[in-house]
């Protein structure tokens, strides 16, 4: 059983055609699992629906608390990409023991159809969470990064190693 | 560096609007890597473009030969799902040493847009090939299966363990 | 009020991922009207779900009967493209009076996402049926054709005038 | 020959995955004509790429000038929906003679895939411009409206008659 925690981010944003703004409605995760024809047992819980630029320490503590409390030792967290590394770092120092926690996100909302990277990222994050040893990881761009050796390049939008 | 071998299958099929039949043109793999914003180094080679129902022993030997000959020890093979397990089994007995070979496919062509499972499968297959120990694996439905413990359920289209 | 008769054709085909064949389930018309944000009053009736290559004279008579019987004088018929002109010709000789009947179809199934012409064809067919004078018309490729001056070019898939 | 003038609007907006903002790159009109398999002769010119909320009188004069100067008497203008009616009204009072001018837009960007209404609107606008008598019209929601009997309902996003 894989525990999935939804926290929002670009991954789950929608376009509001009245205001022209992006916003959150429900998560797309369940329909993505169905479309991916996944036969993994998953327990999906939406903890919050926020843009990672607006994520505060109390939000991060909610994520950490739920990771500690979860009965499952494989945990996938969807998250906005701008502060994804900060949350990974927070989780690494919050007393989560013997669990593999993978954080992933998307650069283009899943709802925007065939241009989004989200479905690919979900596939790779689910795979990595099943086989990586306990620890906190970021999964983006087809790769996994230990939490303490990754940054988002603000110019290109790619995730890269600190010494890359 | 990940070696990618394309062999066809539903994954890469297109709809011919003149005849109403499915057919092969070029592989979608490169554009899928771009859309997935993958920063993995990959070497993509199209070995053939065939429906797996029409795949013969000489086709399988071409795949095996190229797996043995590849300079890379992480190999991803895209393949039709109907005979994917047979090819995995062939590869397991063809003298490939110290390499991780992952076979994946799709139930719905990538070209058919937001209904296809292909992009998700590519994400998970790429992840698994990076971290699984040497051997021959099938990746479908978000999971990996060792080549000798998997079958395709012809009724549901899902892959499952032999003793499942 | 616009009367819409669904008869099948490529327009409404789906991909069966078990058999790899195309088949019919429900029509996509209602969800297409919603996505197009249409505020037209429409009455959608599915008369049959057949490939136009398999359409027989009794099927055409069902369409003609329903066109004659409809209380509305603006009628849109979705139809397979291969025999669309034959059905238009049949309708023209079946005693439909003082009604504008527009037949349209698609070269690529609507279900195949961003490659399909179906949504564009629906938009133009709905527009033409509102403003053309009574008669039987074929709408494809952004244009309308009177029933007795159109053929489908089997090589290109485009509809063209007989003297074109 | 149909003259097409592109002015921007939601129709042609893209998502910038670095900033999370919508922006303009190139128009999608040519690829939309191709996907719609249109065989109409069209002359597509991009006059500007602006959000209609930022459209000023000098922009409207550019559109009017080009409508007057065009050698063609069937003109399609793509435009943001928020001020589409204002531009239609401006054009009606700018000395365009014996020409059918149709303005259309989209509530959801065409680039956002299978949720956008843009492709449907393009199909209906192209149809209406071919058959309506000279004048200035707004085409949205599957319908045409004379310029002086239409408003955008800001709450629902639907276009409706003034006396509706």
From TrEMBL, chains A, B, C, D:
The terms under GO molecular function for this entry are: asparaginase activity
Name of the featured protein: Asparaginase
Which residues does the UniProt record annotate as the domain L-asparaginase N-terminal?
Answer: 2-156
Organism, by scientific name, is Phaeodactylibacter luteus
Q: Which residues bind substrate?
A: 52, 81-82
Pfam family of this protein, just one?
A: Asparaginase
Give the annotated active site: 10
């Amino acid at each position: 059983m894989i525990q999935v925690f939804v926290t929002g981010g670009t991954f789950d944003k929608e376009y509001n055609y009245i205001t022209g703004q992006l916003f959150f409605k429900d998560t797309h995760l369940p329909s993505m699992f169905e479309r991916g024809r996944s036969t993994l047992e998953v327990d999906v819980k939406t903890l919050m629906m926020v843009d990672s630029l607006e994520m505060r320490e109390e939000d991060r503590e909610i994520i950490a608390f739920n990771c500690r409390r979860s009965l499952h030792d494989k945990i996938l967290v969807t998250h906005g990409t701008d502060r994804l590394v900060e949350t990974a770092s927070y989780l690494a120092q919050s007393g989560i023991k013997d669990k593999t926690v993978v954080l992933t996100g998307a650069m283009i909302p899943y709802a925007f159809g065939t241009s989004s990277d989200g479905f690919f990222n979900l596939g790779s994050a689910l795979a990595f969470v099943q086989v990586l040893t306990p620890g906190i990881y970021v999964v983006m761009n087809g790769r996994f990064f230990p939490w303490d050796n990754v940054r988002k390049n603000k110019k290109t939008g790619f995730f890269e190693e600190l010494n890359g």
